[in-house]
User: Fold these one by one.
Assistant:
Number 1:
Amino acid sequence: MTGPMNAPGNLRARWRKLWRDRSGVAMIEFAAFLPVLVLVLLGGVDLARFIIVNQKMDRVAAGMGDLVAQAQTLTAAQLNDIYAATKYIATPFDFTSNGVVIVSSVSLTGGVLRVNWQSRGSGNLNATSKIGAAGGVAKLPAGMTVTGTNTLIAAEVYFNFTSFFGLSVVPNRQLYHTSYFRPRLGSLNTLN
């Protein structure tokens, strides 16, 4: 007999049947796991970007230092031409807005390491050299020395890394990379 009197029993039977039915369990488990999967995927993309940015900034520092050290003499205009290469090395990252290159010449003057000259270019980021200021005492890493009439070219690269998805896998930070080269053909202790 079916009807309103038997409705609660019929409802209980339907609930029991629904409770025992396992045909949609995989889809429900996938739907529950999907947000975690998406976060892991996006975090992996951000981590990969961070690694690539670090590699690019290492190349920028090495490239700038090497190009400067190849010159026999150097003018500000020639240095600006060298800076122009930065955006191509740093591609696809926006170095103009988020980075800056600082090139310094360091030599021994009166027994003290001094910054002979310093130039900045390639970007608009406001950063201060960790080597020192032009005319001031130079700070080099431990174990790095400059002797006699030798000169050292230091290329510093600063870049503001911003997480692509705003996740905290790799937080936003300022990257810093340096390279040091000895001039090959000239002393480069003056910038003409």
Number 2:
Amino acid sequence: MKLICSVALAPAILIQPTRADFYYAGVGAISCAKIAQDYQQNPTEIGKVMMTWAQGFMSGANINQWASNGQYRDLQAMTTEAQSRSLRE
């Protein structure tokens, strides 16, 4: 039985994918260490990029909530500056 299992599993072990499949991309796929390093070099620009990412994340969560139970938050009720302050506090 061990021989049969070994023979059956050998192709799965030996065949390696040529690339990894990801279900996310963009800024969210960059490590926090890299973001922190880049932020030290250029805080204004990286701060803008991260705020754009945060708004996209909030939008996605909001759409999911609306699809699940019909409720959502008005994301334009706060200015971008107020949203940024809220995330930093």
Number 3:
Amino acid sequence: MTKKIDMPALSVTRRRALQGAGIVGMAAAIASLPFTRSARADDVTLRWWSPQSAPAQLAAYKFQIAAFEAANPGIKVAFEPTSDETYPAQMAAAYASGQVPDIVTHIPSFSVASYYAKGLVEPFDDVIKAIGPEKYFDGANKTYEAGDGHFTGTGIGNTAADNLWVRKDLMAKAGIDKIPETWEELRTAAKKMQGGGIYGVPLPFAKNSATSFVVTTLIHGAGGQLFTPDLQVAIDSDATANALEFYKSLRELAPPGATSYSWGEMITAFVSGATATGYYAGRVLVNVNKQNPSIADQITCAQYPTISNAVPKSTINDFPSVFIPKGTKNLAAAKQFAAFLFVPEGYIKQLLAAPGHILPVLRTIAENPAYTSDPIITKYPKEVELMTVNAAKGYNMGFESPAHKPNTKSVDIIASDVLSEMVQRVVLNNENTKAVIGDTAKKLEVIMKS
């Protein structure tokens, strides 16, 4: 289960909590809704779960919690970290035991949609109304629209999850004059840059969500899809076979330990200088500047290459979300805190805990000087703009394209590891590619019918 993080109280008065541009206005909007009055009636402690808990993020959460508690006497908030790999099991256990957290943030929108379809999520309409629908980027909440007319949650941010990161110095040394745009260009460039203790790619080959994300990127990059727009299994295709064969060809360019890599190892490999390229979201920017500043002026990113220039590039956005689980004993207070997370001062602190990683969903925040003047944002304007634009029109397993119906089984697919197992069978076990894809299609059909 989750572990509570000790977060010492900050000295934040009620007046201080409500000061600052935009804070008073949003506070008034929150206070105008019925749920605030009942939230104040009883002393409660809200449990907040999130898989995002880096030290800088914890500091931002501490500020938000202290400000909220100062503005709302009688309501306390306890932060409890989960992880990207374990949250499905932790949520399942919480629902089974009836001990659900009061608010959950930073898990993918497709997971929220899946939980909502099973009757496990409270409608989020009141919270979006309190935040202010007019403040969002156009279409920001489309992925949260449920068939019953309600919203399942909202985005705590956007993430361009599958950027190709490169080192300009290593490219120049290897005689590479442009960032790879096709798979063949990527493979050739990675081979040229590999050597002297540096590997070409940091891609994972373990049975986990990271590998599932990478193979999804490659299937889309081959012109394929996991499902048709009406959610029929479509993975048994030449595109998937091409994706797996390309993935297999990169094994020799990855570190030996990549067979056990997950998200943490992937980013560390590039940031530390162990690999010449990277596959990750915008956290790379701040991590390089803090942990390996000698290469900070040499990094840049692009959309991940495709099989050929004839296949359009796309971006995975896992749409990090905020939602309220069904079964919370503190629904009114949970709604109040969920809306408070978007008060500008605290929300900007949270975004800038990893600048460029979690990108704002509110247009008003993206234009706010307190956000745009951050040193990382100003140092990498081209990269941040690229990720912001691509993430806004991105997709994920639960929302493969604008034509697709929402896939509420996506969280079950990720939890099953059926996609990463497919990779292991082809890449590590050398099983017949077409046979493995056929088996995988059958497993997906079972999950979709479950």
